[in-house]
């Protein structure tokens, strides 16, 4: 163009800069031309195109440099910066830019809100996300599907699926993107049945599923206990001619691998037209658990065909490798330049340690005259911790010059496991003094220590710190442990308050609440909550039944306890275990129903243990004033074995 005498304009230059295929070196040359010709300063159009070019290549420093040098900025420029910061995980910078846009009195657009919402990607960003949601409504964008989809996606990334669902229901006509986000959300949160129900509703609304839809639904099917749902989805994929798609095919491979159907997994792998690293890694992962030699062969074949393994490929092979294969894998990792990748290096160290070669792991990760890196130290310390070598854990991590939050968490957990609960809080004080910000795992360890010490005052202080740091509201695991602490310390009001304020509850949350109510003398309330759990569509498991039967024991609710026990197997399809039989025998014996307790013992499909007999005999003692009645013809041997 320039050779024929045509001069560059801002539009022609911006058009070239916007090409997806343009490499970074050419982009830098064009940047120089734009500066030399004055086009960069003449119009924000060229500067915005340059921002996006550097953003595509991950050069954020150059993005910021161009943005700051631009004499004038359009709303498109601001929106591009918001999106780039959001996509690269800088929510704080996103928020700062958004405030600058507001100060400039720019007219906000759909792209503005989409950009700022893309930066809200974890629990800690929820407050910002909710504020943006308010501005969306205030500025009249509540009916814009692209903005609402961004809101739904934001709530999903912040792990508040219930709020995402609320926004989803406000959509007049959800599009494929809306459905895909919600299907993927329920698939990731362990509710595959809801994900498949949404898929069915989407089909009934006349929308055709796309690649993302099928990937999410196949991933959801891995959450079921049976393979039939995934096979049904596989048939749908074939009917829609998507079986050769690399992403869908990889999801199918992963699905069949998780059900240990390697024949079907290999078939789906062969159906993929253009295999990629993801599909190879999925197949390798399947064989890693069954045949480490096959997974290693597949990795070598993958390399020979010109594919570059990624960190997940190596991690999958290392997971199942034996001692004889480690050296070969180690050489391949070094040869392909992954010796500096923390994820691969961590997997390698773990594999050495798993094969009983901790000293070998230490030798490989420690260069002569150098200390272990923080990541390597954390991995080996974690292995020491899990194998009960607490002193080795402390010795290794105390040598670190700059321990991170993971290091502190491992040391705190090591002290807790060793029963040194008071030292846990001393370590936490040191951690705070070093300026290391605690995470949810830190708080879990602190709350567990409070449970063991039955220290309500300290537990409440920890909760106060969690509220201050915005941890108690966002994470289900932390809230579950918090409820357990309050329940065991006898503060049932705080237990209920914590539960009621949770937006995402799982079966553990309900079980913790039922246990706390039962242990603190609120048996009828525990039964009400058990029924409430059912009404919310959560199927009780064996642990939930143990909790509610224990509540009946504490409250003397014989009729209710027996009804629940009878319904366990017939209605809920939960097979009673020793704890359940013990709970019912104890309930009957404590309330004077010795004949029924004896019949329950006689009906057990396995020999009763010492706890069952003790509950029965204590009931006899209570009712018959130290005289034990004759037992029915039950094998006496089992009675003595139980107390052996």
Short description, anyone?
The chain is 71% helix and 0% strand. With 644 residues, the protein is mainly alpha-helical.
Characteristics:
644 residues; mainly alpha; 39 helices; 0% strand; disordered C terminus; repeat
Describe this structure in words.
By secondary structure, this protein is an all-alpha fold. The protein has 39 helices and no strands. The chain is globular, with a radius of gyration of 30 Å. The model is unreliable at 632-643 (pLDDT under 50). It holds the Pfam family PPR.
Helix content bin: over 70%
Radius of gyration: 30 Å
Largest sheet: none
The backbone outline, from C-alpha atoms, is globular
What is the number of strand segments? 0
- Give the CA-CA distance, first to last residue: 94 Å
Mean pLDDT: 83
Oligomer: single chain
Number of helices: 39
Helix-strand makeup class: mainly alpha
In percent terms, what proportion of residues is strand?
under 5%
Given as residue ranges, the uncertain stretches (5+ residues, pLDDT < 50) are 632-643
Organism: Eucalyptus grandis (Flooded gum)
Keywords: Repeat
PPR repeats: 74-108, 175-209, 404-438, 506-540
GO biological process, one term: RNA modification
List the helices and strands and how they pair.
Elements: H1 10-17, H2 24-37, H3 39-42, H4 44-56, H5 60-69, H6 75-87, H7 91-103, H8 110-118, H9 126-138, H10 145-157, H11 161-170, H12 176-188, H13 192-204, H14 211-221, H15 228-239, H16 246-258, H17 262-271, H18 277-288, H19 292-304, H20 311-320, H21 323-335, H22 342-354, H23 358-365, H24 374-386, H25 390-398, H26 405-417, H27 421-433, H28 440-453, H29 456-468, H30 476-488, H31 492-501, H32 507-519, H33 523-535, H34 542-555, H35 558-570, H36 578-590, H37 594-603, H38 610-624, H39 636-642
Helix pairs in contact: 1-4, 2-4, 4-5, 4-6, 6-7, 6-8, 7-8, 8-10, 9-10, 10-11, 10-12, 11-12, 12-13, 12-14, 13-14, 14-15, 14-16, 16-17, 16-18, 17-18, 18-19, 18-20, 19-20, 20-22, 21-22, 22-23, 22-24, 24-25, 24-26, 25-26, 26-27, 26-28, 27-28, 28-29, 28-30, 30-31, 30-32, 31-32, 32-33, 32-34, ...
InterPro entries: PPR_At4g14850-like_plant, PPR_rpt, TPR-like_helical_dom_sf
Protein name: Pentacotripeptide-repeat region of PRORP domain-containing protein
Pfam family, one: PPR
